[in-house]
């Protein structure tokens, strides 16, 4: 089913009182630096100027009361309000995530409040500042809030522009992650929760009591919503809104939902004791249910429709753009994997393609008003570097043959390629090497 890259949610209205965050959490990046020589603060200054395309101003040294800190300063740049803090200190034993770069001698830390008017671009500049401050000696870049690491090849491509424009492959999904928790991971139910939205002064999102069979669809829904709400206000509490074509849900304060949480389900009051303060919004079915007491329920019917590809999700425009770039950059790996499969393979190869409206093959697809085209998933049968063919998925009555050019591809997936590899997409294409 088609996905659209726009959404009918409130824009420009006052923030719903239930979702107000007293103060956003800061964003931090840590760069791990090799070599005994202390990193030069002048290089950090130049890195910041290059990353923000604006010379740092109001530069002031920060007071140092720690023998491990070599230098520290704060600065401002044009068009952003919050000061940026940068400091360098000795790396401590065991400080690197998972011991990934145990030979690091120094760390450079960058911390500030994100610019809410352009958060993705701001995060890219901050990450680039940290990564470039140590020059060629930077081994690893780390987001301590998300627990995400990027090695040199990765952060160079993402934030420093090697093989692509800086930030061209970065979207809202780099600002949060989704956690899964269950008492019994084999049986569920699962509690899904976001981490990182508090840095945007937004409530963290949750999904409760998700059956094992619906976890994949739940992840897709949470991912789409979190990315959208990076730059858009959340709908009012308890008010239905569309997450996709004819896919209505509601956001409800967590304190209301956990009152009727099933016994033994993850996400109860005990599980929440270690959570940071701040509002949390639970994704629920659009309407309360119950004959005697109205309660908010998980959107199980909506998740089932997503799992069956009967509908799609509205996506943040930048997510659509980045997925398209990645899909086209890795198209050759997708084609090669398709050609290399053996006759007994049960792997399914699907591609999301943009096709002109009005043709038989896309007559039932949802409309993309921006370019009069529909975005549909196609189960491919033939592939080349230039084109492909297959049938539209998600609706038996629409399973018609289509052909497409590789330049029309916006995403691709390989399902069930190997027992140890349930799914491969553009972001994980290196697993095909």
- Gross geometry: globular
Total of helices: 8
Overall pLDDT metric: 89
Please state the CA-atom Rg, rounded to the nearest Å. 23 Å
Overall number of strands: 19
Structural class: alpha+beta
Q: How much helical structure, as a percent, in the residues?
A: 10-25%
Distance between the termini: 30 Å
Question: Mind summarizing the main beta sheet?
Answer: 7 strands, antiparallel
Order of helices and strands: EHEEEEHEEHEEEHEEHEHHHEEEEEE
Write out the strand line-up for the largest beta sheet, numbering strands in chain order: 2-3-4-5-1-6-7
Tally the structural domains: 3
Beta-strand fraction estimate:
25-35%
Low-confidence stretches: 1-8, 359-371
Helix and strand topology:
Elements: E1 27-34, H1 41-52, E2 57-61, E3 69-76, E4 84-90, E5 104-112, H2 119-133, E6 138-143, E7 148-151, H3 152-160, E8 177-181, E9 190-195, E10 204-210, H4 215-229, E11 241-244, E12 247-253, H5 254-257, E13 280-285, H6 300-307, H7 317-329, H8 331-340, E14 348-356, E15 373-383, E16 387-392, E17 401-405, E18 409-418, E19 421-424
Parallel strand pairs: 10-13
Antiparallel strand pairs: 1-5, 1-6, 2-3, 3-4, 4-5, 6-7, 8-9, 9-10, 11-12, 12-13, 14-15, 14-18, 15-16, 16-17, 18-19
């Amino acid at each position: 089913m088609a996905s659209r890259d726009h959404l009918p949610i409130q824009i420009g209205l006052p923030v719903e009182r239930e979702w107000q965050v007293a103060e956003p959490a800061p964003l931090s990046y840590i760069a791990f630096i090799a070599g005994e020589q202390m990193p030069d603060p002048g290089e950090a200054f130049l890195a910041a100027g290059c990353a923000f395309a604006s010379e740092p101003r109001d530069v002031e040294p920060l007071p140092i009361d720690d023998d491990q800190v070599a230098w520290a300063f704060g600065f401002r740049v044009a068009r952003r309000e919050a000061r940026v803090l940068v400091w360098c200190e000795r790396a401590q034993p065991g400080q690197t995530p998972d011991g990934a770069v145990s030979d690091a001698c120094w760390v450079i830390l960058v911390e500030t409040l994100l610019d809410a008017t352009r958060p993705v671009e701001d995060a890219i500049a901050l990450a680039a500042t940290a990564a470039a401050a140590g020059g060629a000696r930077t081994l690893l870049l780390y987001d301590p809030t998300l627990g995400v690491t990027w090695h040199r090849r990765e952060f160079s491509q993402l934030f420093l522009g090697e093989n692509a424009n800086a930030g061209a492959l970065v979207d809202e999904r780099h600002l949060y992650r989704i956690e899964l928790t269950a008492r019994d991971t084999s049986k569920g139910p699962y509690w899904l929760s976001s981490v990182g939205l508090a840095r945007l002064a937004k409530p963290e999102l949750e999904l409760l009591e998700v059956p094992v069979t619906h976890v994949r669809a739940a992840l897709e829904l949470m991912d789409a919503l979190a990315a959208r709400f990076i730059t858009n206000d959340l709908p009012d509490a308890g008010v239905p809104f569309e997450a996709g074509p004819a896919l209505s849900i509601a956001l409800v304060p967590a304190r209301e939902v956990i009152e009727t949480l099933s016994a033994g389900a993850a996400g109860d009051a005990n599980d929440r004791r270690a959570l940071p303060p701040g509002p949390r919004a639970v994704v629920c079915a659009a309407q309360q249910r119950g004959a005697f007491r109205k309660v908010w329920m998980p959107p199980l019917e909506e998740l089932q429709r997503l799992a069956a590809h009967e509908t799609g999700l509205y996506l943040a425009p930048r997510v659509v753009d980045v997925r398209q770039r990645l899909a086209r950059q890795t198209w050759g790996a997708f084609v090669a994997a398709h050609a290399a499969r053996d006759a007994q393979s049960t792997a399914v190869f699907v591609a999301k393609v943009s096709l002109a409206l009005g043709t038989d093959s896309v007559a039932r697809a949802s409309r993309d008003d921006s370019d009069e085209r529909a975005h549909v998933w196609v189960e491919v049968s033939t592939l080349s570097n230039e084109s492909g063919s297959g049938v539209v998925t998600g609706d038996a009555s629409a399973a018609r043959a289509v052909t497409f050019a590789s330049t029309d591809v916006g995403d691709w997936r390989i399902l069930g390629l190997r027992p140890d590899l349930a799914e491969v997409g553009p972001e994980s294409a290196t697993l095909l090497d």
